[in-house]
Amino acid sequence: MDELEYLRTFIEYNNSRISEIEKESTGRDDIQPFVEPETGRFLSFLVKLTGASLVLEFGTGIGNSAIWMGEALKKSGGRLITVDNHPVTRIEAEDNIKRAGLADVVEMRFADAGKEAEVLLKEYKGQFDIVFQDCGKYLYPLMIDSIYDLTRKGGVIAVDDTLFKVNPYVRKNLGRYTDEYNKIIYSRKDLYTSLLPVGHGLTLSIKL
Ligand SMILES: C[S@@+](CC[C@H](N)C(=O)[O-])C[C@H]1O[C@@H](n2cnc3c(N)ncnc32)[C@H](O)[C@@H]1O
User: Which atom belonging to ligand 1 lies closest to the Cα atom of 39?
Assistant: First the structure.
């Protein structure tokens, strides 16, 4: 048994719909990958650790990470806004979130992430306890400032797939964007950053 297999022996899904989605998705090539179970578990841990009540996600996919965080938020009466621009998978995500019993917790917005960030800034500037970035990798460097502005002081910016640069199975250009993101974010003095080797890498920054 290797480290990952050992770690996974401890992982309990906080909502049964997540394990169903994982089973149903095996072998599918028409959807983008969703968070690894240890990343999902960590995101729900982060919601609990920070006592978050308002969370924002860019990149809903078919709803897996939204369910991990939404379930943790349900317990505390919090809510999640999640943004994706895919016309097909958004319907699947909506169905999965409903079947997870989280329709009242998770608000889905069908929009381009960069554009929706500007819309959200009008209503929620400096209010999100956690912003989880997991949409198009090219947007990671481009959205740094708007995500910073959306996050409250003391809040956390969590960004997935940030070890892509050194992942031999991932296209090089994707790793270029995540590498650029890490370099910028580590250099910012208004954030305190730590990259965790969870899943494909999770860069966490506290807004100071
Ligand atoms: C890796 S998947 C998200 C997986 C999801 N967070 C999970 O773990 O369950 C990335 C998603 O980002 C979305 N995406 C890519 N570019 C986007 C953009 N410009 N605006 C909004 N969504 C975008 C894709 O449609 C896709 O569903």
Answer: 8
